[in-house]
Design goal:
By secondary structure, the protein is of the alpha/beta class. The chain folds into three domains: 188 residues, P-loop containing nucleotide triphosphate hydrolases (Rossmann fold); 117 residues, phosphoenolpyruvate carboxylase, domain 3, CATH 1.20.1320.20; 134 residues, Rossmann fold (3-Layer(aba) Sandwich), CATH 3.40.50. The chain contains 19 helices and 13 strands. The protein has a seven-stranded parallel beta sheet with strand order 3-4-2-5-6-1-7, sandwiched between helices. 43% of the residues are buried.
């Protein structure tokens, strides 16, 4: 008989286990409240019930797979040699060997999918499939394909889906439930009675900055171009104000019209592309750094597209480029960067052993942040970015380890830092910028105050996209919790009705 070790299950974990034993379950817990421990509890229960079976844990990234694999070894009596990491870095024969000797296998869904389809492994004796970060379970994603194979092949299937944030629309949540064959929902928030006592205090601070006249001048020039291009697009029967999503849909529509032989749509597509490029420039100016905007202008100069050439020939844009170049030569700092430097200095003055994580949407901004912060005495900052941005998964794991071992004390990263990094010692989390995604906001927020109290600082430029995106993600988060609570009640009611019908 296998057992857990090194931890005492919390009340809500025990309650959730009662549901997961009998149902394919979507478990939504705040980041840092022990989702992996819930998976360990169920894995032990399934392995004891089906002694000859195996357990699979699908995770979206190798760094997260590594961390979960280690947590299973530390928190269960399953022999460590029987808990193994399965990645594409191993050749197929090595993976097959690990499959044969293991009770618990942790890896990315793509790797499992490849081995299933190549008939290297069979899911017939797998008693539990755990899908971590299950908000990624969209149609035809690897984890949904693995779930389908598992449902078809396993003699005793049970699915556990874990996330802190499945999405803010009923359609998104329904899709996850459909793709992963979910029968029950367990949701907890930081306000729930059986969770509250385990939640570490998070101090929240909002640091609002005014855009200086130098940035406002450039912004006004770009906005003039933006408004002018939108007016031209209106001729094609569109509404006067368009979001980025609207523009992308419009672009797709015009492409379809071209395919049907409408040559007039070519100019429309070019206009949409121009608006998108100006919109992106405004975003960089207002929410990132002057150097980020300058690099983008340089990139436009190297493009051969009609949209880029038209934009760069506009007098307003020419003036905006010139002003941007002048500010860059003066080493002008966005006021958010100045505040970030001040906040970091203050934190290390208060506590020289501090650990800080900083979130930014763009690698160019991350790079600039790290360069500036490393000039501060006592700061050892490092970039943490994704594979597409230049860091291998092996390098990502190495950086996280070095951060835990105090070789670094500040991590500045892109979206890779939002998921799957479990660092209990963080003192401070700083949002350099914001996103409309409630999923990303929840993931960011959950990086701090996991083991001890921590602080979150939201940096925002007033009357810019920063502010708007922050409140959009807030609203979506509240909506998500309401939807999940309603879905839980609905599933429970349907089950009760079914039980009553079975009596007749």
């Amino acid at each position: 008989m296998y057992e857990i070790k090194g931890f005492e299950p919390r009340l809500y974990q025990k309650n959730i286990l009662l549901t997961t034993i009998n149902n394919n379950t979507l478990v939504c817990l705040p980041t840092g409240t022990g989702k992996t421990k819930s998976a360990i509890l169920l894995a032990i229960e399934r392995l004891n019930k089906f002694p000859d079976s195996k357990v699979i844990i699908c995770t979206p990234t190798k760094p997260l797979s590594y961390q979960i694999c280690e947590e299973f070894k530390e928190s269960s009596t399953v022999p460590p040699a029987q808990i193994n990491l399965i990645t594409g870095a191993l050749n197929p024969e090595e993976r097959k060997k690990f499959w044969e000797i293991s009770k618990i296998l942790v890896g990315t869904p793509q790797t499992f999918k490849n081995d299933i389809e190549a008939d290297r492994i069979s899911l017939s004796n797998v008693s539990l499939l755990t899908v971590d970060e299950c908000h990624r379970s969209k149609y035809k994603f690897a984890n949904t394909i693995v779930a389908k194979y598992y449902k078809e092949q396993s003699e005793f299937p049970r699915i556990l889906a874990l996330t802190a944030s499945p999405g803010a629309t009923k359609e998104k949540i329904d899709l996850i439930c459909h793709n992963l064959f979910i029968e029950a929902v367990e949701i907890r928030s930081e306000e729930d009675e059986d969770v509250q006592s385990y939640i570490q205090k998070k101090e929240i601070e909002y640091v609002m900055v005014d855009l200086p006249k130098e940035i406002i001048n450039i912004s006004n020039l770009l906005k003039n171009v933006y408004k002018s291009k939108l007016e031209s697009i209106k001729k094609f029967g569109t509404k006067s104000w368009l979001t980025k999503a609207d523009l992308l849909k419009l672009q797709a529509r015009f492409h379809s019209e071209i395919a049907r032989g409408n040559k007039a749509a070519f100019s429309a597509i070019s206009l949409v592309a121009q608006v998108l490029k100006i919109s992106y420039a405004l975003e960089l100016l207002e929410t990132q750094t002057i150097n980020s905007l300058l690099k983008y202008f340089e990139k436009l100069k190297s493009e051969s597209s009609k949209a880029a050439k038209v934009i760069l020939n506009d007098d307003n844009v020419k003036r905006a480029v010139s002003l941007t170049e002048q500010l860059a030569k003066k080493n002008f700092l966005n006021p958010k960067l100045e505040e970030l430097i001040n906040v970091t200095k203050k934190q290390f003055e208060l506590n020289k052993d501090s650990k800080i994580i900083i979130f930014a949407n763009y690698r160019s901004t991350v790079k600039e942040i790290v360069s500036l912060l490393n000039k501060i005495r006592g700061v050892k900052a490092v970039e943490l970015v994704g594979q597409k941005e230049g860091l291998s998964q092996k390098e990502q794991i190495s950086i996280i380890k070095k951060f835990e071992n105090n070789e670094y004390n500040v991590i500045a990263g892109t979206s890779i830092t939002e998921e799957g990094i479990s660092i209990g010692s963080l003192n401070l989390s700083i949002f350099y910028d914001h996103t409309a995604s409630e999923i990303r906001k929840i993931q960011r927020t959950g990086r701090v105050a996991r083991i001890k109290p921590g602080k979150i600082i939201y940096l925002m430029a007033k009357k810019t996209r920063d502010e708007g995106l922050f409140w959009i993600s807030n609203r979506k988060e509240k909506k998500m919790h309401n939807l999940l609570h309603n879905m839980k009640k609905e599933l429970e009611n349907n089950k009760d009705k079914q039980i009553n019908l079975n009596k007749f």
